[in-house]
Structures are given as C-alpha cells and as structure tokens.
Amino acid sequence: MIHRYLSQEVYILHQQRAQQARTSPDALAEDALRRQLGLAESGWQQAFDRLLGQVQARSAGLDPAEIEADITAAAAEVKELRRARRTG
Predict the structure, then answer these.
(1) Considering the domain boundaries, does residue 61 fall inside one?
(2) Residue 1 lies inside a defined structural domain of this protein
C-alpha cells in the first residue's frame, strides 16, 4: 500500500466521489490511476473490483463480530434446510 498526501480539497472531493460511486476511496483511486497509466483491467475484473469496493464501503461501519454472527446463522439455516430436504 502506498500513501500519498492530498490537499484537503482533493481529499474531500475524492471521498465524496467514492461514496457516490458506492465504492471505497482506495478502489476509486486505483481505478483512476490504472486508466491513466493504460493498465486498465479486463471488464470482469473491473466489475468485480467495483462490487468489492461497494461491499467494503457499505460494511465499513458494521461490527465484524455481528457480520460473523450473521454469516454463521445463515450457514446454519442453510444446513438445516438441506437436512430437512434429504429426510423429506
């Protein structure tokens, strides 16, 4: 990870654009730099990175323990549904 210093004006605008795009500031900056340097990735990779940035931005304020608990509960529910289907 490389850290660069930005003026406050550019930093605020960057944060706003990332929120508008529903992506993380890091993903937005990397995408812009890749395009500028001619290193644009394939379409699926860009779409995946954009989606990943959106997920990370949306979950930034959530408690990791709560996320883990939700995942564990959902997995248990799926296992129970599969078990019920098998036993008929």
Answers:
(1) yes
(2) no
Q: Which residues constitute the domain of residue 34?
A: 8-87
Helix 25-37 to helix 8-20 angle (10° resolution) is 100
Span 28-85, pLDDT tens digits: 888 888 888 887 667 778 788 889 888 888 888 888 899 899 999 999 999 999 999 9
Tell whether pTM > 0.85.
no
Query: Does any domain span residue 51?
Result: yes
Tell me the two tokens of residue 11. Answer: 């930093």
pLDDT for the residue numbered 56: 86
3 in any annotated domain? no
Cα–Cα distance for residue pair 16/6, rounded to 1 Å: 14
Contacts of 78 (CB under 8 A, 6+ apart): none
